[in-house]
Amino acid sequence: MALTGLFLVSFLVVHAAINAMIYFNDGGVTFNKWAHFMGSNLIIRTMEIGLFLGLILHVVDGILITRQNRAARPVNYAYAQHGANSKWYSRSMGILGILILLFLIVHLWHFWVPSRHIVGNLEPYGVDAAGQANLYALMLLVFSNPIPVVIYVLGCFALFWHLLHGFRSAFQSLGLNHRQYNGLITLCGEAFSIIVPTLFASMPVAMYLGWVR
Ligand code: HEM
Prior knowledge:
Layout: H1 2-19, H2 29-40, H3 42-72, H4 93-115, H5 135-142, H6 146-173, H7 182-208
Helix pairs in contact: 1-3, 1-6, 1-7, 4-6, 6-7
Bound molecules: protoporphyrin IX containing FE.
């Protein structure tokens, strides 16, 4: 779980950085250029297979671990004070993971499916000022509707809580924790969990409010 989780974290950094190109506010020219590169470069396309395998492995591992934990304690504690030694989001990683997965299904359907020509393509959205396929125009269209905007913001909330536990926990699982560095790991985990989901959530909001056009 820790290895696939950190691998997915590295994907989030690249994904957020490329998406942040929308803030150049240049009609999507820079964003579309990078999106086209990501969709056409052979090395990146091969890594994309790794990404989906990593995602599936992370989900399957999560299901197996939850089952193992349940089997290890088939009878509930008669008296339990869970809040005393763990946070609610640490005990809710499964449900947060399911929410992120639901968000991902909607999300991939919106952008990845047409951009990879699985169902439909980007032709209906024309080309940008540089004559490139216009994934950006599709984003503007999707985020002109408040329902997807709300779904994306909620998805980012789930991601925030999931990362808040997952980031630090991954280091602990890999034995990379040490009393001397635990404070730093916690700080990095908290910063990452706040910055990346906030950046992601800002994008549908910025498009809906017309901050980027
Ligand atoms: C909330 C703001 C987000 C926006 C506006 C956004 C936008 C996009 C776009 C436009 C694509 C298609 C890229 C392409 O075809 O080249 C894409 C792909 C993808 N996104 Fe997002 N995304 C967001 C958040 C997320 C989050 C939070 C996750 C994960 C938890 C995620 C996971 C993915 C995955 C797995 C793909 C397919 C990967 C690939 O292109 O190979 N996205 N996203």
